[in-house]
Amino acid sequence: MAGKNTARKERDISPAIGAATAPKLDRLVHERLRLGILSALSVNESLTFTELKKLLETTDGNLSVHARKLEEAGYVSCTKSFEGRVPRSDFKITAAGRKALERYLDHMEALIQAMREK
Amino acid sequence: MGTRPEPVPMHAHAIDNLRYIRKTMERAGSFTAVPGIGGMLMGSTALVAAWIASHQASGFSWMAVWLGEALLALAIGIAGAELKSRRAKLALVSGPARKFVAGFSPAMIAGAVLTAVLFRAGHPEFLPGVWMLLYGAAVVSGGWASVWVVPVMGACFMAAGSAALWWTGIPNDAFLAAGFGGLHIIFGTVIAVKYGG
Fold first, then answer.
1. Is the pTM of this model over 0.80?
2. Can you give the residue range of the structural domain that contains B132?
3. Sequential DSSP letters for B101-146
4. What is the tally of structural domains in chain B?
5. B143 inside domain
6. Quick check: B11 and A55 CB within 8 A?
7. Interatomic CA distance for residues B33 and B82, integer angstroms
């Protein structure tokens, strides 16, 4: 229950600027590492845990935590398998994840545009 | 008591985030600026050009048809890359596109020089081989850092060019239709299906 509440809180925080009219900022995507995971997966069919770790220059623990959050939100899917005796996790971005990233990009562009027009 | 740090303006944070997304996508590497749909279209126009060129009586008009096709293909390529980059929210001058152009240009310039020299020297029979060989070399070096299918396409063009130079008895337009038409359509389809348009 508490986990669910946290996830909702993370998703629904509006930015200070234009909060009344602007679409809500997806805090799940807004976090740096999660944004990196979604960006990397959006241009690849799939990436393994090790590839993502190397690409985003992060630690096992950090990547696990953030990848799980995205998985719980349905933004990425994870397939676990074995390569010989070594476990392997393949991550893919889902349609919802792609949409969330696109929404986030639009949001950032809208923010920049709004400041330029001021 | 320490002074409070200046708050970062919202739009500066947004710019920083967009920059981070772009860098991550570029580093993720599999994004290819080469447009698959553009390649398919270039292949289709090359097939039409091959048919028109095969009906030309003079060398000059034959050359004019293929030069026109080259310009049309260039325009399609640029428009396709622009569209694809825009869809991926990357500027056309982003890392992958810049790397492609830097590797692609030298062999293309060499091809333009050789075209003028061979045509002036009265050896247009070598042109299809030279065009495909150098276009292939340009694609291999431009697409080296791209997805595997791009340098493979370049290598196929190089093979087709070498074959055209070797077997000069086969009609030029047949080679050009197979190369610029067939290879573009086949690899363009693969890129469009597997690598986002």
1. no
2. 30-194
3. HHHHHHHHHHHHHHHHHHHHTT-GGGHHHHHHHHHHHHHHHHTTTS
4. 1
5. yes
6. no
7. 8
Residue contact B10–A111, C-beta within 8 A: yes
In chain A, where are the structural domains located? 2-117
| pLDDT, greater one: B193 or B29 | B193
Within an 8 Å CB–CB cutoff, is residue A65 touching chain B? no
Interface pTM, i.e. ipTM: 0.73
Topology, domain A2-117: Arc Repressor Mutant, subunit A (1.10.10)
Instruction: Report pLDDT digits (tens) over B41-97.
Output: 999 999 999 999 999 988 899 999 999 999 999 999 888 877 876 666 555 545 566
Q: How far apart are CA B69 and CA B81, in angstroms?
A: 18
List CB contacts (< 8 A) between A55 and chain B: 24, 27-28
Domain membership flag for residue B176: yes
Predicted local distance difference test score (pLDDT) of residue A12: 46
